[in-house]
Each structure stands twice: as C-alpha cells, then as structure tokens.
C-alpha cells in the first residue's frame, strides 16, 4: 500500500483586530502595559496564512499477522501578511510503525517518529517612559528583532493488547517515550 497526499489551505481576509487586547481593560496601569504590545503583531492562530502539506504513507504486509509502515510528512505555513509575529512555520517528520498479531488474543505494536520544526518570528521591543504623570511608548524600528526556533522531537512507543474475553473485554498496556530538544536563535536589539 502506498498513499500520497497533498493539501493546500489559506486563511485570507480575516477581520483581525490589532487592538482587541484593549477590550475589557479598565485600569490605567493595564492600558499602559497593553500599549507595549505592538499593533503590527499578528497572533499566529488568527493571522492570514497559506499552508502546504505533503504526506506519503507506505504499508507492507509480508504475512497476515505482521505489518510494517513508513510515513513522511512535510508542511510549510507562510504568514506573509503579518508585519510582526510568526512569519513561517516549516515542519518535517518521518516515522515507522509495525505490529504483530502474536495469537488470536495478543497483539504487539510499536512505532518511532522523528519531527523537526522550524519557526521564524519578527517583532519589536517597545519601551515606555513616564514623565510628569504622562506615559510615552517608544515604538522605534531600531528595536526590531527576529528569532528562529528549531525543535527536534523523537517519539518511541509500543503497546500490547490482550483480549481477556475476545469481543467483550480487552486490555491494553501502552508505553510512550518522547525526547525533545529546542533551540532559539535571536538577533540583538540595537536600539
């Protein structure tokens, strides 16, 4: 069995309100703190984006009681309409799985997946100063910064399924181990 898949999706024309975080703020201190968030910042789950995703799944059954699978996925999301915030999200994963029907009551399954996720973000550090009871927010492009985050995740797992009374009572013992490493590289703010 070989099953390829490709999907494209776009979120375009959303009515994103960059000042929504002010709604409900009543205290002057809260409003001053909220001003530190740039109206250019787009929250990634609300921002316009274009996404591509390709996947390939293969399955091999050498015997009726044994199955092996291999899968690979690549995804890219582009947030091209966001002046600040998440700019791109690129994901790659590859994995394998297998199962063995040991007898009519017992089945063993195991899997491994490797994932690599790279995200790029732009933002601006906004500062404030208070003089004579007046708060001024400084929004200087010299305070722009960017970062790239790289996550690598290894996931191992296995399960043992035993039918105590076939068709009525089943028991499953599952073990999963996940090891993740994250790294963020950021530029300095010159201003």
Estimate percent helicity.
under 10%
Gyration radius, in Å: 25 Å
Which structural class do the helices and strands define? mainly beta
- Mean pLDDT metric: 86
Q: How much of the polypeptide forms β-strand, as a percent range?
A: over 45%
Low-confidence stretches: none
Number of strands: 10
Order of helices and strands: EHEEEEEEEEE
- Distance between the terminal alpha carbons, to the nearest Å? 57 Å
Could you describe the largest sheet, including whether it forms a barrel?
8 strands, mixed
Broad shape? elongated
Query: How many separate helices?
Result: 1
What does this structure look like?
There is one protein chain. This protein has one helix spanning 28-35, and strands spanning 2-11, 41-42, 49-63, 66-78, 84-101, 106-124, 127-131, 134-138, 144-165, 169-186. With 191 residues, it is mainly beta. It is elongated and about 80 Å long.
Quick synopsis:
This protein is mainly beta and 191 residues long. Helices cover 4% and strands 66% of the residues.
Topology diagram in text:
Blueprint: E1 2-11, H1 28-35, E2 41-42, E3 49-63, E4 66-78, E5 84-101, E6 106-124, E7 127-131, E8 134-138, E9 144-165, E10 169-186
Index terms:
mainly beta, single chain, elongated, 191 residues, two-stranded antiparallel sheet
């Amino acid at each position: 069995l070989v099953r390829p898949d490709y999907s494209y999706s776009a979120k375009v024309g959303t009515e994103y309100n960059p000042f929504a975080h002010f709604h409900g703020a009543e205290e002057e201190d809260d409003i001053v703190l909220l001003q530190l968030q740039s109206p250019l910042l787009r929250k990634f789950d609300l921002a316009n984006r274009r996404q591509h995703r390709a996947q390939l799944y293969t399955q091999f059954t050498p015997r009726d009681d044994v199955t092996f699978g291999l899968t690979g996925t690549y995804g890219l999301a582009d947030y091209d309409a966001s002046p600040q915030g998440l700019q791109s999200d690129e994901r790659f994963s590859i994995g394998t799985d297998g199962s063995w029907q040991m007898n009519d009551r017992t089945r063993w399954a195991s899997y491994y997946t490797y994932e690599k996720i790279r995200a790029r973000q732009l933002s601006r550090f906004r500062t404030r100063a208070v003089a004579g009871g007046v708060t001024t927010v400084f929004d200087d492009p010299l305070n722009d910064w960017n970062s790239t985050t790289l996550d690598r995740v290894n996931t191992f797992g296995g399960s043992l399924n035993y039918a105590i009374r076939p068709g009525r009572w089943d028991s499953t013992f599952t073990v999963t181990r996940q090891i993740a490493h994250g790294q963020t590289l950021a530029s300095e703010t010159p201003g």
